[in-house]
Structure formats: C-alpha cells, structure tokens
Design goal:
95 residues, eight-stranded antiparallel β-sheet, 1 helix, 8 strands, 14% helix
Length: 95
C-alpha cells in the first residue's frame, strides 16, 4: 500500500494524516477524535467513520455552489462561489 503520511502535533494533541495513492483516500487519525476517511465517490467528496458509515458529503453544482450533505445525504448547507472565494482567501493567508 503506497501512502504518504504526515504527523501533526499541537501541544498534547497529535494526529496522523495519510493519503493512499492506490485507493485515493485521505485518512485522519487522532489521539483525541475518531478516525475519519475522506474519498471521492462519483461527483461527491465523502467523509466516513472507521466502520465506513457516511458522516457527511459535499459536491459542487453547475452554478459553482458547494452543497454540504448530512449522513442521510440530505442538503444541510449551500456555499455560494463568493463565499468559497472568501474562505480560500482567508485560510490561504493563515498558512
């Protein structure tokens, strides 16, 4: 299994982020939180728990909006292209 792994630590909190090149899955495991796996399924990005249960999903529609879905794949939030650009600007400055 070919995976790229990075350890992240902030004080006593520690997490491991791994990307598996073969399965195209991103896995985040922590000493304090449950493990989450993120993967692309069709046109959606899906976050799952360790048992494979869907936690949430998101996708981009034709208008450029990002739709956030809950565990039942029901719409819970919509972000406009302007909101997405504002978040990109905000979070890219923090790095």
């Amino acid at each position: 299994m070919a995976a790229n792994t990075k350890q992240i630590q902030d004080g006593k909190s520690e997490a491991t982020v791994s990307f598996n090149d073969q399965s195209k899955q991103l896995t985040i495991s922590s000493t304090e939180k449950p493990t989450v796996t993120v993967e692309k399924q069709g046109n959606m990005i899906v976050a799952k728990d360790q048992s494979g249960k869907i936690l949430s999903a998101s996708l981009k529609n034709e208008q450029g909006q990002v739709l956030v879905l809950n565990q039942k794949l029901e719409l819970t939030k919509t972000y406009s292209p302007q909101e997405i650009q504002a978040m990109k600007a905000r979070y890219s400055q923090q790095q």
